Amino acid sequence: MKKYLVIGNPINHSLSPKLHNHWIKKNKIDAIYEKKLLIKSDLNEVISQVKSGEIDGINITLPFKNSAIPFVDELTLEAKKTQSINTIYCKNKKIIGHNTDIAGFELGLRHFKYDASKKKILILGAGGVVPSIIFALKKMGALHITLSNRTKSKAEDIKKNFPEIEIIDWGKIVEFDMIINATSIGLNNDDEIKLNYNDFGKNKFFYDVIYNPKQTNFLKKAKELGNMTDNGKMMFIYQAHQAFAIWHKIFPKIDIETIKLLDD
Ligand code: ATR
């Protein structure tokens, strides 16, 4: 039986096992996908188990997407550019670190039928997933990307890899077509991002990476004012879909049953 893992800290909340085990069952694959709580000093040992064949693949979640990099043999182009890995596999006896968050974000937007080309984008936050979002938006032809983070130095670190982005102070706003909440504000139901929603004009696209809760206050207010909104649920499903395809060479079905799995 093949063995797959998602590693992170915390890890209890992760819905990856539910999704992967559902697809494993549907496709009658002899495999199991489990979650494992780690501390940073465990990374080397767990990742080396992919080389020895004890583990067949690993998904990495917060906070190890960057700190796991030294323990793989090779990075894919996407992983290199974002300095972020969320999927590990073995190829020709080498451990490869790859990033499927990029494709996850792009396919999630396409699922929503949003065309990001020539659009002005404002991203709030500079956490682990932001370089992947920037990479995907650039690939999709976004016109201009502005980044705002409470801790400005973290935004400046991201700019080192993406010099074309603009950084503004936390609390400032620029004109945008699409605004993305990539902060953790909204994970708690009463969390609010202080924004003057009435100043933005209508028909903007508000996207929240958070999908649990389904509708953050950020999306709720935007919707009330007549804007388009979407959460990060499809991004999550598609990043898993891409990892599944790499490991099992099958693109499993994303149907209503799959999407509903994440609602329970
Ligand atoms: P990580 O930084 O470990 O990747 P994350 O959950 O992906 O974690 O990122 C959290 C993001 O939410 C950060 O951009 C953080 O801002 P800081 O870099 O200043 O910490 C942002 N964030 C969390 N709570 C916030 C708050 N109350 N106000 C503003 N930004 C907040």
Short summary of the structure?
With 264 residues, the chain is of the alpha/beta class. 33% of the residues lie in helices and 21% in strands. It folds into two domains: 125 residues, Rossmann fold, CATH 3.40.50; 129 residues, 3-Layer(aba) Sandwich (Rossmann fold), CATH 3.40.50.
Structure description:
The protein is an alpha/beta fold and 264 residues long. The protein has two domains: 2-99 and 235-261, Leucine Dehydrogenase, chain A, domain 1 (Rossmann fold, 3-Layer(aba) Sandwich); 103-231, NAD(P)-binding Rossmann-like Domain (Rossmann fold, 3-Layer(aba) Sandwich). Helix content is 33%, strand content 21%. It has helices at residues 16-26, 43-52, 77-82, 101-111, 130-139, 152-161, 217-224, 233-248, 256-261; strands at residues 2-8, 31-37, 57-60, 74-75, 87-91, 94-98, 120-124, 144-148, 166-168, 178-181, 205-208, 228-231. The protein has a six-stranded mixed β-sheet with strand order 2-1-3-5-6-4, with helices on both faces. Helix 6 (152-161) links the parallel strand 8 and strand 9. The protein is globular and about 55 Å long. The model has no long low-confidence stretch (mean pLDDT 96). 2'-monophosphoadenosine-5'-diphosphate binds next to loops.
